[in-house]
Specification:
The protein is an all-alpha fold and 155 residues long. The protein is 73% helix and 0% strand. It has five helices and no strands. The N and C termini lie far apart (132 Å). This is Prohibitin. It is found in: Mitochondrion inner membrane. One of its GO terms (cellular component) is mitochondrial inner membrane.
C-alpha cells in the first residue's frame, strides 16, 4: 500500500509543481515581467548572438573552414555572456539571394571557359611542337641519307 501511495504522492507532487510554476501572482497596482526562459532565448538571446557578422559573402563561400573556426570562437565567447555553453558548431548550409547565386554561377562558367581555352591553346602549342620535332627529324633523316649516299659514291 505504501508503494502505491508513494507513487501517487510523487505524481501529485510533480504535477503540483508544474502547475505552480505556471501560476503567477501579481499584486494590485503592480506590473510584472514574466521570464519564459526558452521563449526569451529564442526571441532575444539568439538573434543578438547570430545577427552580427564580420565576413562578406565571398569569404563565406571561399573560406568556410576559417569562418567556422572564427564563428566558433566568437559564438563560444558570446553565448557565455548569457550563461550558455557552446560545444560545437557546424556550417551546413548557406543560402544567398538569387542575384548573387546567378552571378557566382556566371563567374564559374566564365572561369571554366577560360580553362577550356587555356587547354586548347596548350594542346595547339604541343601539336605545333610535335610538328616541328617531326619536321626536324625528317630533315635530319634526309641529311643522314644524303651523307650516306655521298660516302657510298656512285656504287
Amino acid at each position: 500500500e505504501f508503494s502505491v501511495l508513494g507513487r501517487i504522492g510523487i505524481g501529485l507532487g510533480i504535477g503540483g509543481g508544474v502547475i505552480n510554476s505556471m501560476l503567477y501572482n501579481v499584486d494590485g497596482g503592480h506590473r510584472d515581467v514574466i521570464f519564459d526562459r526558452f521563449q526569451d532565448y529564442e526571441e532575444r538571446v539568439l538573434p543578438s548572438i547570430i545577427n552580427e557578422s564580420q565576413f562578406d559573402t565571398i569569404e563565406l563561400v571561399t573560406q568556410r573552414t576559417l569562418i567556422s573556426q572564427c564563428a566558433s570562437k566568437f559564438l563560444t565567447e558570446r553565448v557565455a555572456q548569457f550563461g550558455l555553453l557552446l560545444d560545437d558548431i557546424s556550417i551546413t548550409h548557406l543560402s544567398f539571394r538569387s542575384e548573387f547565386t546567378s552571378a557566382v554561377e556566371l563567374k564559374q562558367v566564365a572561369q571554366q571557359d577560360v580553362e577550356k581555352q587555356r587547354f586548347l591553346v596548350e594542346k595547339t602549342e604541343q601539336s605545333r611542337q610535335a610538328n616541328v620535332i617531326s619536321v626536324e627529324s625528317d630533315a635530319r633523316t634526309a641529311d643522314l641519307i644524303g651523307k650516306a649516299l655521298d660516302e657510298a659514291g656512285d656504287d
